[in-house]
C-alpha cells in the first residue's frame, strides 16, 4: 500500500503543474482555439497573427462569406464595417500576395465551402523583388497536426509568455502590445507616449534606407502573382484597394525615384482586376498626421472609412478626395492628376 500511495502522490505532483498550466492556457486562450470571452482575456497580443487567425477558423465556429487579406496595415480595419459582407479579417504583419493561395485553399477546404468575396488590401512596398515571404505551410501543418492543440495547452512558454501577459493587459485594461486584439478579431495600436512626429520620422528613415532605397527592384512577377490568384478563384468576387500612407512617407517614395514603379504597380493591379479603390496619394486623410499611428499604419477610424468606401456604404464623414476608383480606361489621366497633387 505504501508503494501505491507513493506512486499516486508522485503522479499527482507531476500532473498538478500540467493541469494548472493547461487550465490557465485554456482560460486565456492566447492562440485563439476557443470561442470564450471574458474580462480577463479581452485584450490579446498579436504575437503570431497567421497562426492565431488560422486557429480561429480551424477550431471555432466563426462564420463568414468574405475574406479580408492584407498586411499589418489592413489588420486595423474592422471586419464588421463592410456593408453587405460577413467578413473575416485574415490580414497579418508582412503578409504578401505570394502567401494568399495556400491559405484560401485550406480555409475553403476546412469550411467545406468557398468564400464568396475576397477583399485585397495591396501595399506598394510589397512589390519589392527582395521581400522575405513567410511559408503558409508552416502554419497550416500545425492546424493539421492532431497533437497541436494539446501541445500548446500544456506549453509552459504559452503560459509564461502569452497567457500571463494577456491576463495582465486585460486586468489593468492596457493596450500594451504592439498590436492589441479583442476576442472579436479587431485590432488597435499600442498606447504609446512616444511623439507622433518621432514615430513618423522613424518610419520614413526605415523606408528610405531599406524599402525605397538602392536595393529596391520592382518584382517583374507581381502581375503574374495577381493573375494566378484570380485564376485560382474563378467564382469569387474580388474587391481591391490600396493602403494609404502618410504624406511624409509618400513624399519619400517620390524623392527616392519610385514614382514610375508606383505607376507600374497601379497598371498591373488594374489590368488584372479591372478596377481598384486607390487611397495611396495626397488627400485630406493622408495629409493629416492624426490619421496615422506611425508613418504607414493608419488608425482604425481610417480603416472604417476605407471599409465603407469599398463596400459602397454612404458615409458623410468620408472626405470627398479620399479614395478614387482606378480603371484601365482612366488610369493614365488619374496618374497624371496624382502626380500633380504630389508637387
List keywords for this structure.
47% helix; 13 helices; alpha/beta
Structure at a glance:
The protein has 343 residues and is an alpha/beta fold. It has helices spanning 2-28, 49-59, 72-75, 97-111, 136-144, 148-153, 156-172, 196-210, 222-232, 247-255, 259-273, 300-310, 331-341; strands spanning 44-45, 66-69, 87-89, 117-122, 179-181, 187-189, 237-242, 275-278, 324-327.
Overview of the molecule:
The chain has 343 residues and is of the alpha/beta class. Helix content is 47%, strand content 10%. It has helices at 2-28, 49-59, 72-75, 97-111, 136-144, 148-153, 156-172, 196-210, 222-232, 247-255, 259-273, 300-310, 331-341; strands at residues 44-45, 66-69, 87-89, 117-122, 179-181, 187-189, 237-242, 275-278, 324-327. A 4-stranded parallel beta sheet has the order 3-2-4-7. α2 (49-59) runs parallel beside α5 (136-144). The radius of gyration is 22 Å and the shape is globular. The termini are far apart. The model has no long low-confidence stretch (mean pLDDT 93).
Beta-strand segment tally: 9
Give, in order, the helices and strands: HEHEHEHEHHHEEHHEHHEHEH
Name the poorly predicted regions: none
What is the terminal-to-terminal distance? 89 Å
Biggest β-sheet: strands ordered side by side in the sheet? 3-2-4-7
Helix content: 40-55%
Amino acid at each position: 500500500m505504501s508503494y501505491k500511495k507513493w506512486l499516486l502522490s508522485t503522479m499527482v505532483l507531476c500532473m498538478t503543474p500540467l493541469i494548472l498550466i493547461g487550465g490557465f492556457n485554456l482560460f486565456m486562450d492566447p492562440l485563439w482555439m476557443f470561442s470564450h470571452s471574458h474580462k480577463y482575456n479581452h485584450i490579446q497580443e498579436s504575437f503570431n497573427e497567421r497562426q492565431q487567425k488560422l486557429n480561429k477558423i480551424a477550431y471555432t465556429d466563426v462564420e463568414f462569406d468574405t475574406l479580408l487579406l492584407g498586411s499589418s496595415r489592413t489588420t486595423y480595419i474592422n471586419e464588421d464595417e463592410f456593408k453587405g459582407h460577413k467578413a473575416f479579417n485574415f490580414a497579418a504583419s508582412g503578409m504578401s500576395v505570394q502567401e494568399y493561395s495556400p491559405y484560401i485553399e485550406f480555409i475553403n477546404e476546412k469550411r467545406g465551402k468557398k468564400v464568396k468575396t475576397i477583399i485585397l488590401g495591396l501595399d506598394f512596398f510589397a512589390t519589392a523583388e527582395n521581400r522575405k515571404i513567410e511559408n503558409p505551410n508552416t502554419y497550416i501543418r500545425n492546424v493539421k497536426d492532431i497533437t497541436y492543440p494539446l501541445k500548446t495547452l500544456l506549453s509552459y512558454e504559452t503560459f509564461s509568455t502569452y497567457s500571463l501577459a494577456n491576463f495582465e493587459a486585460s486586468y489593468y485594461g492596457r493596450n500594451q502590445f504592439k498590436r492589441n486584439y479583442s476576442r472579436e478579431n479587431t485590432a488597435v495600436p499600442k498606447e504609446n507616449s512616444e511623439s507622433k512626429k518621432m514615430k513618423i520620422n522613424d518610419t520614413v528613415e526605415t523606408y528610405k534606407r531599406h524599402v525605397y532605397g538602392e536595393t529596391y527592384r520592382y518584382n517583374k512577377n507581381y502581375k503574374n502573382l495577381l493573375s494566378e490568384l484570380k485564376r485560382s478563384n474563378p467564382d469569387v468576387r474580388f474587391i481591391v484597394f490600396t493602403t494609404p500612407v502618410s504624406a511624409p512617407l509618400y513624399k519619400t517614395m517620390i524623392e527616392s525615384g519610385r514614382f514610375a514603379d508606383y505607376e507600374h504597380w497601379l497598371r498591373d493591379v488594374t489590368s488584372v482586376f479591372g478596377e481598384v479603390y486607390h487611397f495611396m496619394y495626397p488627400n485630406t486623410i493622408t495629409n493629416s498626421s492624426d490619421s496615422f499611428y506611425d508613418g504607414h499604419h493608419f488608425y482604425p477610424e481610417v480603416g472604417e472609412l476605407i471599409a465603407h468606401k469599398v463596400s459602397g456604404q454612404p458615409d458623410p464623414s468620408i472626405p470627398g478626395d479620399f479614395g478614387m476608383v482606378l480603371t484601365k480606361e482612366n488610369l493614365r489621366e488619374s496618374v497624371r492628376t496624382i502626380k500633380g497633387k504630389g508637387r
